[in-house]
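Suppose you are handed only these lines of text.
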Amino acid sequence: MTESIALDDLSTGFVRHRESDARQYHELGLWRDTPLWRLLWDQASTTPEATAVTDTERCLTYAELADAAAARAAGFAESGLRPGDRVIMQNQNSVAFAVNLFGLLRAGLAPVMTLPAHRINEIAHLARASGAVGYISHDQAAGFDYRSLATDLAARVPAVTHLYVDGDPGDLSPPPVGDPTSAPATPNDFDPDSPALFLVSGGTTGLPKLIARSHNDYRHNAEKSADIAGFSASDTYLVALPAAHNFPLACPGLLGIIAVGGHAVFTADPAPDNAFELIEKYRVSAVALVPALTQVWTAATEWEPADISSLRLLQVGGARLAESDAIAANQAFNGAVQQVFGMAEGLICYTRPDDDRQTVARTQGRPMSELDVVRIVDENGNTVSDGIEGELLVKGPYTIRGYYRDDDHNARSFTDDGYYRSGDRVRRTASGHLIVTGRIKDTIVRGGENVAADDVEENLLAHPGIRQAAVVGVPDATLGEKICAAIVVSGPAPDLPAVRQFLAGRGLSTFKQPDLLRVVDSLPLTAVGKIDKRTLLKRLTPEAGTAVTVGGPTGSPTG
Ligand code: AMP
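From them, the structure of the protein bound to adenosine monophosphate can be written out as follows.
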């Protein structure tokens, strides 16, 4: 086989689970050996008339959604796309997102799930790395024109020849529509352990990596999550975070709600005035948010008039939720908070409905599956006892065994015996819940002392006037690095001496106290809404550029 033929093949560079593990997952019925798109079609044959998806413009039943996706699949096939081809998807939260996603899956194409906030550098990199031949997006959103991105992409990566744009395609083509009854049949040699779709790693320190999730592992991810969330056909899930992210996509998210025959309502605007209205209008029962949004929603319950009493599950994850914020949110939303800690690479932890409020406020949940194998190790790779901090390593039925076509990262990010090195610093409680204390590498080395950024942040957040805090190390000729705290305040800003005095009062060691304080209007966020420390550092010290490490082994400070 020549190299170009090999790279055409979806499975080239995909790291499979070990045979003995895969056998066990099959035998236990966790892996169901069906194409991922079956999630939708199984439901469409059971409850065709039930409402499946809604956005500001339209609303489709299960039968209509399956039909639209089949027509799209047929269109893709007629346009020359072949099973196994990769297609970059960059859609806004909308019904079109669901149609395109299920259309691609139904045609045997593997979508690369990029976020609306990704720009040409990342998209071109992901297209090259995945060997993509297609790109599909909306025309424009939030002042950004995706048609020019598409054109730029085709110029930079000539292999990308199929460009489709929803809305006003301009010089490009609208997504193709064929005869739904001629949607391609699943090939006889269909392999349910092959990649169904690609997620992208949430790194802010380098270009994102491709995370290939198989039909088997991803369906299990969505179904098991739906089970833990208690999802049923009477639930309505608000897709408020960018739908291509693992959290709103499959934890349980869009795929989880479709799996049970519930209703997914899409919004591209998660601000509380809009979101609360949707909650009232559609009797939304579940939503997933990042901590920064949770703070805003919590505050908004004070003045937004909408009736949000239908909301029974408010999932918060993606970044660390301060205990005080968890308590405030639980009060504001009648105990609806569920903490979620996970990663696109696999492992997802949830607090459970029967956990007491203290566990929900203080921990990031426990692994979703009994088959998840979690090890917490010290810097020498030795397993530590419960209560002791260490790096989280994990393997299991829905955790990848390697990034796609990335031997270099795989050598660093996976152990020889198949565990994913998360780069997250955690400790386990006696009940098996995990407490995330930070990133292994999110440490400032000040005058030879290691200072964990999150330790300082947690203490800063205890200050009643500090709403958000992020701590980074800035280069310093004498100390190596100085501790710089960027804060967002909710009233008059405290000055550095006042902050230091407050922290000293909480017992924080002197060497951990900020040397510099910057009051900012807002903290920069990553594509999915986590604090972006790399950008923050550049803003605070433009001259320092990329000199200071803030990421972990998997490349991201907060993921
Ligand atoms: P992503 O790949 O975008 O899902 O990001 C995964 C990373 O986000 C994890 O490895 C963690 O570093 C971080 N993360 C996700 N959820 C939480 C959480 N609840 N608390 C702290 N960090 C989190």
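What can we learn from it? Residues 201-202, 246, 317-320, 339-344, 364, 422, 424, 436, 439, 528, 558-559 surround adenosine monophosphate (CB under 6 Å). The chain has 18 helices and 26 strands.
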